[in-house]
Amino acid sequence: MKSPFDLKFVFVVGKGGVGKTAVSGALALAAAAEGKRVLVAMCNAKDRLSYMLETGPIGPHIQRLMPRIEAVNMEPGAALEEYGLLVLRMRALYKVVFENRFVSAFLRGTPGIDAWAMLGKAQYHAREKDPDGRDRYDIVIVDAPATGHGLDLLRVPRVILDVAPPGLLRREAERANELFQDPERSGVLLVTLPEEMPSTETVELHAALRDELQLPVCGLVINQVLPQLFNDAEHDELKRLVQQLPTGSGLQPLAAISHARAEREQLQRACVQRLRAELPVHQVQLPLILLEDLRRGEMDEISRLLAAGFAPLRQGSA
């Protein structure tokens, strides 16, 4: 298994609210700190990344956020036109092909064409070259939609291969599918929380990636992990203490709060143990940051933790 830092194309996928955008941005910061040229591609999402990185808003066309990091918030219509122009090279040819009424009708009837517009554009940039022949980007990071929509996005190349006749669209889908299934170049980075529902959804997502789509998984980030204050024995003692303290005792509120914390830690340990047992992938834990919003300082710290967490893969010892 290769580290996401050593891949050309990385999907960041997980249940909504687990911190995919923060992980995508931190991964970009860590890669840029190594000197890599990075593109972060969001999929028609609410732009929270620019707030976290303290940059200007991210729109539907690629823009520079900071040295070595560029970003785009892909909208299906704009992405399809831009992707078509990139592939066909000439606006006149684009108009002949994509604005032809028969082609337009076919595209509108093709399942997943909006998703392909975004995915096709993103994978094109992973292969894009500068005029001097150098790769334009060393790594393209796709901040994918939440799990169900994220899986649908990843299914799109296969859907197109099933329905599209031989031609440009099918060739592009074949190239994308080949890229996504190559563990030397691409990987899916799973993000979850140490909670029951996100953990279950992550196990199911991993099974779908492995069995249905045969896409390589390059790691799992367990986000918002509480530091351990109580072990299992102390949890049991706190539970007994809460039950035994007389009503009105001044210690009761403190005991109740401590027991609630121990309960959450115990659930967290169970989820982490399950993820370790059921997902044979490299796992990195990120701590819970007790702030309402993440800003650039916190993102820099998360980027350092990600780089350190994936270091064993890069040393060949994981």
Short characterization:
With 318 residues, the protein is an alpha/beta fold. It has helices at residues 20-33, 49-53, 76-88, 91-98, 101-109, 113-127, 147-163, 168-180, 196-213, 232-244, 252-278, 296-314, and strands at residues 9-14, 38-43, 63-66, 69-74, 139-146, 186-192, 217-225, 283-287. The protein has an eight-stranded mixed beta sheet, with helices on both faces.
Protein described:
By secondary structure, the chain is of the alpha/beta class. It has one domain: Rossmann fold. The protein has twelve helices and eight strands. It has helices at residues 20-33, 49-53, 76-88, 91-98, 101-109, 113-127, 147-163, 168-180, 196-213, 232-244, 252-278, 296-314; strands spanning 9-14, 38-43, 63-66, 69-74, 139-146, 186-192, 217-225, 283-287. Strands 3-4-2-5-1-6-7-8 form an eight-stranded mixed sheet, sandwiched between helices. Helix 9 (196-213) links the parallel strand 6 and strand 7. Helix 9 (196-213) packs parallel to helix 11 (252-278). It is elongated. The protein starts with 8 loop residues before the first strand and ends with a helix. The model is unreliable at 90-94 (pLDDT under 50).
